Fold these 2 entries.
Entry 1:
Amino acid sequence: MSNAPAPMRALILGFGNVGKRVAEILFEERDRFPGLGALELEVVGIATRSRGVILDPEGIDMREVLERIRRDGRISDSVARNTDLTALIRETSFDVLLELTSLSIERKGSPAVDHVREALWRGKHVVTANKGPCAFAYRELERLARERDVRFLFESAVMDGAPVFGLARRALLGCSVEGFAGILNSTTNFILSQMEEGMEFADALSEAQRRGVAEADPRHDVDGWDAAAKTAVLSNVLMDAEVTPFDVERVSVADVSISDVQAAAKRGERLKVVCRAGRLHGGLHASVNIESFPVSHPFALVQGMGNILELQTDLMAPIRIVQTEPTLTDTAYGVLRDLLELADVA
Ligand SMILES: NC(=O)c1ccc[n+]([C@@H]2O[C@H](COP(=O)([O-])OP(=O)(O)OC[C@H]3O[C@@H](n4cnc5c(N)ncnc54)[C@H](OP(=O)(O)O)[C@@H]3O)[C@@H](O)[C@H]2O)c1
């Protein structure tokens, strides 16, 4: 008889870029990543909005699913539009929910917030890459997870797989985060870098879309909503705030002209979209603004798709974490890292 631990049974909601990359790494490329050795996942359900739903309590053949979606653009023939995902969470037997649906600012993080709430309520662990749950309902969901004695993990929600929350929770144990500043939206950083090379805003945006960096509807990036959501997540999780993206002061990078970028360059500076939060008058002030930095400043050196986050704490001088040209594999790693953390306790 084998002593190997039983695999964690996962229900996956959303099977787009991130879901597929996680599945490719785990089920097709596993041999290349020996560090994932302890992680055994059995997928018992996958639901998408328009690409089908599959349920199999005995475990889904994930190689077949990946082949099918690459071939047909669907995971199954079943129509998903009317599937009540909250009911699916209630009625399916699983150990961990992978919430990988899209962020909705307009719907205040729903339906992802409802999915996470339902799973935690049922006493199931949750791993999500979606910013919505922490940007709109962190305090409630974290409390629910504690009450139900399960984990609510979201490392890839900010800076993909870079260990932002792991750093603050584990490596900086005992430090209180008093503020942060960061370049956290790759699309706008890429646009500003291209404008510095002389490209007009609209062309730089088209190039970002062509490379698959910007979202199909890029307003979330351009108008600062993605950055505001990340600012809200960091504020709520690291600074015990209770803000939403609507509370974050915000500007649009569309207001920056090529002459603004070039004037900054003449001064020896670079313009960046910066997310910030800090304590102010007993409350918290959070913002997404365009700031100018001397070219030798660590923030100015983060070009293209790169990201940087500086954490200001009470016990340590500022700590910076820099991410150079992240890809989807970085995001998938954040999800896998959370699953590995669960594998220790599940
Ligand atoms: N891409 C990145 O590098 C990255 C990095 C960090 C965080 N994230 C976050 O990770 C999440 C997934 O990103 P992604 O790039 O994989 O997005 P994506 O490619 O757009 O895929 C989203 C998936 O969620 C499904 N979906 C959306 N709304 C749904 C709903 N209401 N009910 C059921 N299914 C729904 C979509 O269904 P259809 O297939 O039918 O459209 C699709 O399968 C997002 O919240 C994103 O913000 C992404």
Entry 2:
Amino acid sequence: MTNVVRMAIVDPIDSSRNSLKNLLLGIDWVWLEAECSRYEYFTEIVEQTKPAVALVSLDADPQLGLAAVAEVSMAVPSCSIMVVSKSQEGSLILQAMRNGAKEFLSAPLKLDDFMAALERMQHISGGGRAGKSKSNRVITMVGASGGVGCTALAVNLGCALAANPDNGVAVIDLDLALGDADVWLDIIPDYTIQDVADNITRLDYSMLKRSLTQHASKAFLLPRPVHLEMEAPMSPDQLQRVIGLLKATFTHLIIDVSKSFTPLDVAAMQVADDIFVVTQLDLPCLRNVVRMNSFMEEHDLAGKTKVIVNRAGLGESQISLNKALETIGREVYGQIPNEYHIVVESRNNGVPFITEHPTSKISKAIQQLAQKIDEHAEFGAAASAEPEKKKSNSIFSFLTKR
Ligand SMILES: Nc1ncnc2c1ncn2[C@@H]1O[C@H](COP(=O)(O)OP(=O)(O)OP(=O)(O)O)[C@@H](O)[C@H]1O
Ligand SMILES: [Mg+2]
């Protein structure tokens, strides 16, 4: 939960409380956990919601406001208190600090002042972004061609990661037209990403949580909309904000995007820590991997792109791994074996193979991948700082010319 700053605010004046709220809602890594219009109730709210930061606006009644500061600081010492007031009177500032406030800012609150205060209170790092949890990862998965197994791997990887009790995992089906992650998990959802989109301006924690359905594996699913629509349900900015908010609750987000490179797909890639390109070792796929590599480089996404070979060992029809490596000019991050019957049975029954056949070769490969992701998260991002690039060889050079 450390990559989002969870906050509670109190301000009995509706207009200034709304301005504060709007300012905070505009910051994707701030989670407004609670807003309160009475100083008397604020301590109880902070005790219940345990935000990292409590913001007290003093101007409605400085004495009651200062009393709330003292009470919150006694009741929840882990919560950092920030005070906002139009008055910059020395005695008021002194009293606020004595009562336990860490920061005294002038009203109306300005974004820069607020960020600088959070930085001083060490809730964000110097770059202006919230400090990142080591174990928090957004993995966007994209197939190099239709039917390569992107959803099968996304769903089973999500379930494998969820088996670790330290992890909280959500799978987001961003294949908005024809996604079928719900089928793989046999979930009939009450809510979908459409509900999140419909409530985007007043999205709160409980609403977002309600939109997700938990699977027996403990992984959650945010499904694609029920109805096929012409329009995207939300803007790329809004999607990135939803992802930012989900990161407050989950250690891993697995996003299964469409193969159309829509603005939402690309937004999910931009916000990801890792982009897994799922491919098979055949000509159409490898040609697309080369094209995708160029796209990633052009859009500054190459450093976090990793290739996962699915259905490895399928047979004669496949191009050898060595030749494939020469073509795509990248290392392969993971290889998932071909186990057709297990995968088809899993999809038809809506039971992840990772739980139904945990000792099969394909499940072990997925578990290894999950372990690699967990280890990577623990040891930091250093390993992925450099793209795993190789010099592309000319054997398949014709591929790049089409
Ligand atoms: N490792 C595997 N071994 C054998 N068969 C597999 C494997 N992975 C996927 N498949 C087969 O490929 C089919 C398609 O898989 P999946 O739906 O996950 O692909 P996708 O890339 O998400 O497809 P789409 O383009 O429709 O989104 C599966 O139903 C299964 O038959
Ligand atoms: Mg799919």
